[in-house]
Amino acid sequence: MSSVFSPLCPSPIKIRIREGTIRHIFKGHRKDFQHATGGANNWNTVQRNVANYLKSMILNSTHLFITDKLTTRTDALLMYLRRPGDVMFHRIPIAQDHVEKICIRDGTPRHIFKKHWKDFQHATGGAKDWNMIEKNVSSYLKEMILSSTQLLFTDELVTREDELLLYVRQPRDKMYHRITLAQDEAEEHVYNVSTAYKLWINEGVQFAGKWKHFESQ
Prior knowledge:
The structure is a single chain. The chain is an alpha+beta fold. It has two domains: 2-95, no CATH class; 101-213, no CATH class. 28% of the residues lie in helices and 29% in strands. The strands form three sheets. The chain has a six-stranded mixed beta sheet with strand order 6-10-9-8-7-11, covered by helices on one side. Strands 3-4-5 form a three-stranded antiparallel beta sheet, with no helix packed on it. A two-stranded antiparallel sheet has the order 1-2. Strand 8 and strand 9 (175-183) form a beta hairpin. The chain starts with a strand and ends with a strand. Mean pLDDT is 77; it is low at 1-12 and 210-217.
């Protein structure tokens, strides 16, 4: 998934090019983007080249217009862009992303590691300096969340109205990770990791919710 920020957007809109989108665009509008493939024949390279072309086109455009007119969905926008010498313009439909996102901000792994270092000592990879420790612990947390087969989000036992608790475990784990999330002040659908630590699984304690099974995406 790629992200694009354009300085010409009328408001700070973050545009994501998700995996599979380029395949869809290229199959439906092959003639419009054949030149952007760079002569590639396999889909991985085609998608990468066309994604890079779109990003460059958005970032380098001097005429950019975003509107909700003629859209077919209430959560959609249309972006029109062209360069001064262009005879034609590109129209790019954009759909709002409603998926909740989890963000690990700079400094958070340092805070987690200082307070709960025993739970994450193995995640440091033997690093001694803080920059590497933060990088390794952050990568471990991301991988743990993405690869987990059992996740539970709940607002029970939180101490703030904008918080959620995320419980993560693998089927054979004897302990689970509890990760505290706080809603981002600027982005409603983004939750920032506040802290994380391990707790023993007490099978006698039942949550109001149930363990949910997810595939990593």
